[in-house]
From TrEMBL:
The lineage of its organism: Bacteria, Pseudomonadati, Bacteroidota, Flavobacteriia, Flavobacteriales. The keyword DNA-binding applies. The keyword Transferase does not apply. One of its GO terms (molecular function) is DNA binding. It comes from Flaviramulus basaltis. Residues 6-52 form the Phage integrase SAM-like domain. This is Phage integrase SAM-like domain-containing protein. Keywords: DNA-binding. It comes from the Bacteria.
Length: 62
């Protein structure tokens, strides 16, 4: 898909975030899969903390 519908940099960002979410779910919930319907405010705040502390990511509001 990269180069056709989306740019290469967008595809790279997608896979980077995918890896972050996957690592977070595995470490926080000890599972390999997590249902979208179970994502709530607590999940988001824990994920934000994970990004800031474990992955050293900066959260920039849009």
């Amino acid at each position: 898909m990269a180069g056709k519908d989306i740019s290469v940099s967008t595809a790279k960002r997608y896979w980077t975030y995918y890896d972050h979410v996957k690592q977070f779910i595995e470490e926080e919930y000890n599972v390999e899969d997590y249902k979208l319907k179970d994502i709530d405010y607590q999940f988001i705040t824990k994920f934000e903390f994970f990004l800031k502390t474990v992955r050293n990511c900066i959260i920039i509001p849009h």
